[in-house]
Amino acid sequence: MKSKLFVPGSRPELFAKALASAADGISFDLEDAVSESRKDEARGVLGDFLRQGGVAASGKTIIVRVNAMDTPHFEADVRAVARPGVRVLNLPKPESAAHVRAAVAAIERAEREHGVATPIGLLLNIETPGALRAAAELAKAHPRVVGLQLGLGDLFEPLGIARREPSAIRQAMFAVRMAAGEAGVYAYDSAFADIRDTEGFRAEAGLARDLGFLGKTCIHPSQVAIANEVFRPTDAEIAHALKVVEATRDADARGVGAYVVDGRMIDIPFVVRARAIVASARGLGLLPD
Predict the structure, then answer these.
(1) Are 126 and 268 found together in one domain?
(2) To 10 degrees, what angle do helices 166-183 and 198-210 make?
(3) What pLDDT does 116 receive?
(4) Is the pLDDT confidence value at 263 over 80?
(5) Residues 95-154: pLDDT tens digits?
């Protein structure tokens, strides 16, 4: 999921357009993109849309960002959108492992009510100081957690930290990536609000990619193509990874533990990375199965 496009839950005229876009994932939003006065309306409209067969058949990763658990909307959101075809619920501002487990319990109740056979995962937003400190604990709270998503605006703005401060961005990204790595889940990058600054978006996406993030959130369709390009394995990376995988087969046959490919010493960590690149390339149709 190199790109994930946000779509306001109160804008049904955009739903089909989003599904037809080049984004890998579509995140229907019931939280920040919907005013308080329209929460009930958006929930009903989105719930109706998700019941349509074309949503599950779109080939997109379908995500819904619900309202936080400390709002009066959380339970109703989950009941409305925990439907077949929805892969992930995006949970804002979780603060404890107990929070995560309570969210899972609500999802399980809704799944039973609606006959959902494939368990819906949880993508946790890391957007408060407490969540950043406890990110690994949150990620390990339940097997339903599939990833951590960094929310730089919510994290920085209340603290007076400039949203574009490079050192702060790098530190927050690194902390979330390490927490996700400890828990064995993916890390997903934050939104970038200035849709006119395509180079700024590209640079931040490139940093996230270098730090091992899976992809980047897009708040406008114009950002999707950039995210897809940045998070795609390069031809050079794919070629090197294939050489490493082939050299590994030969080394294993000869009982050799470390060896050189393209002038680089290769051992297990590099093999793991090479296999991941090859798998990603195959998943994107860049290599034959």
Answers:
(1) no
(2) 40
(3) 94
(4) yes
(5) 999 999 999 999 999 999 999 999 999 999 999 999 999 999 999 999 999 999 999 999
Domain limits for position 109: 3-230
Specify whether 272 is located in the same domain as 188.
Answer: no
> Quick one: 142 and 264 in the same domain?
no
Structural contact between residues 59 and 94, judged by C-beta atoms closer than 8 angstroms: no
CB-based contacts of 19-24 (< 8 A; 24+ apart in sequence): 19/54, 19/55, 19/58, 19/60, 21/221, 21/224, 22/224, 22/225, 22/228, 23/60, 23/218, 23/221, 23/224, 24/60, 24/61, 24/215, 24/228
pLDDT in tens, 189-248: 999 999 999 999 999 999 999 999 999 999 999 999 999 999 999 889 899 999 899 999
What is the model's pLDDT at position 172? Answer: 98
121 and 68 fall within a common domain = yes
For the record, the structure tokens of 274 come out as 């090479």
Angle at 157 between CA 40 and CA 154, to 5 degrees: 40
Same domain, 70 and 147: yes
> Looking at residue 208, what is its pLDDT?
98
